[in-house]
Write a structure and sequence with these properties.
12 strands; single chain; alpha/beta; about 25% helix; five-stranded mixed β-sheet; about 250 residues; Ubiquitin-like (UB roll); four-stranded parallel β-sheet
């Protein structure tokens, strides 16, 4: 056995017992245990870690720990420049695509509303989520720590917030999503691209009040749903503006 000192920063403290938050603490490690093994053994999923420093130097997860090592563990950075350091989780420049677990249906709809390709089915098993994430290079979204600790999961986010709108704000802040939004470009139900629809082509399926008040429509070719800029659109627009620009929103229960 060897002893190393650990310090977890930022929101990573939320995974630790209260006595270990915001301070350095010593922990016993098996001989040649990797940094990743110890980080997860202490309660933090590897997907939540953006930067790992061992004795002040950036390091990878697979580094074996030695007696007296000082390990500093930082969360994923959405707003800070750490380009000169070696992230343990590589970051792609493209807009991320997501797969959400069974408990995050509300967040999945909000992400689609913002234009982010997000797969969701409340029948997905954990094994299916992991396979989809690997096959399609998607970020796993979950409130299940055990799911994120699976070795095969490369990119994931644990959502600390409970309500969907708060989860959306949390995700935007952590991943810096504001610049990648494409509002109202995807079907909230099918996750497929919407197209502009001529009013005459969708007229028969519209409520009388919508026929009288609206002229612009979008349609989904898969589910045949038709969308227009009604009161729900205005609420969602206000929520997205608040999340994007850092203001307050009134959709905490959405």
């Amino acid at each position: 056995m060897v002893t190393a000192t650990f310090r977890f920063y930022g929101e990573l403290g939320g995974f630790l017992p209260r006595a270990r938050r915001g301070r350095a603490f010593a922990a016993s490690c098996a001989h040649a245990a990797s940094a990743k093994h110890m980080v997860e053994a202490l309660g933090v999923p590897h997907t939540e870690v953006g930067l790992l420093l061992v004795n002040g130097e950036s390091s990878g997860f697979e580094r074996p720990l030695e007696e007296g090592d000082r390990v500093a563990v930082y969360p994923n950075f959405g707003r800070f420049d750490v380009a000169s350091l070696s992230r343990v989780t590589p970051v792609s420049g493209a807009a991320p695509r997501f797969v959400a677990d069974a408990h995050l249906g509300g967040l999945a709809r909000l992400l689609r509303m913002a234009g982010f390709d997000t797969l969701y089915d409340n029948r997905y098993r954990d094994e299916e989520i992991v396979a989809i994430a690997l096959d399609e290079d998607r970020v796993v979204l979950t409130r299940d720590r055990a799911l994120l600790k699976r070795r095969a999961v490369e990119h994931g986010c644990y959502l600390h917030a409970i309500k969907p709108a708060a989860q959306l704000r949390e995700l935007f802040g952590r991943l810096g999503l504001a610049a990648s939004t494409r509002p109202f470009s995807l079907c909230l139900h099918c996750n497929l691209a919407l197209r502009a629809a001529d009013k005459a082509a969708v007229l028969d399926g519209l409520p009388p009040s919508v026929r009288a008040l609206h002229e612009e429509f979008q349609a989904c070719d898969a589910c045949r749903r038709v969308f227009w800029k009604g009161s729900h659109h205005k609420r969602m627009r206000a929520l997205l503006d608040a999340v994007t620009h850092g203001g307050k929103d009134g959709e905490a229960d959405e």
